[in-house]
Amino acid sequence: MRALGRAAKSSSLVRNALVFAALMAVVCARPGSAVTVFEEEGFTLGLGLRLQPRMELEREAGSDGAEWRRDFLLRRARLNASGKIQNVGYKMEWKIDGTDQVSSGSQTALGALPSAQLENGYLQYPLSKAVEVRVGLYDIPYSRDRLTSDSQQLAVDRGLVSNVPNTFGLVDNGVGLHVIGKAAGGRAEYAVGLFDNRTIPTRLQDVPMLVGRLDLNFGSTKDIFMDAHFGEEKWYSLGVNGSYQGSIESDTSNANEGSYTAVGADGMMDVPMGSSRFFLRSEVNSISITPPIGGDAITTTTWMAGVGVLLLEQRLQPMLRYDQVRRDEAVGGGTQNVTYVGGTFFQRKHNLKIQADVRFESGTTESLDGGRLQAQVNY
Within its chain, how far is the Cα of 330 from the centroid? Predict the structure, then answer.
């Protein structure tokens, strides 16, 4: 009877996945309005939208062993406005993510209603044709994986290694001020600045977090943070970045010998291969924390590699991504490995696409640990 029950559940999951795929295909067949731009007396305004309906399948332990659990959600819903005022750039982006928790009341067993939050909000002042200053809330210039938008990833979303820097303050979006510069016609790009660290439990910090990055572009200099390009151009890019914050205080004493240190390197190649395209990306990071009372640093090392091939007149991209996180012996040690396998069907490049992937984790007793199916509109 249990075998029959599991077979029925599997059949139901397959049926749900097929229905969801059909619904998303209908949704993606007719996108909404594209970007609308206004321009008058030195003021320009562009409006954008990102929408990601998703189905997730996860293995969860139950009374009869591990079983599949399903969730439908809008993983991301974003509205943004960007442009220039008297040659000063600006961007504002609002998000209402994870809307699977919507309920009829202000607070229920499902949790609070999702609320709009500011994801990006900054001004960018040009100092010259090649140097600008950005101030506000935006992506901290660290890690190619994190600087590549979730809307342009190889897999349905970022992988395991992407969340590790959050522990040390290198969150996806931070408040700060930094200088952006270009040289040699965009072949070299740099960013360096000071940021607030969200992981420090106080709004006042003695020393800000210093973050810097250098990108060297040996091919095209357009849209380097993208996991699939189209056409006949070639991309070759190498990046290095680092971060440091010292004098971090203890919550319980006057000790202030703590520090966060991070260094990393990454590379990307995307080139034509006959009528197709070949994409390869890899990244390694070493992130350390020294306790406020001093002592040995605790280091976490991450590594990832991803590969994709763009086929069928550059419409379909099968992909493979491997993530590894290696933890310090001081916190128990151990290595976690995750492999993602899937693909993307592009209807209008990254603006309109359907993605799917499955996940295999080391150290589990299951042959398959999760799966995701997602549609995306991004304008």
Answer: 29
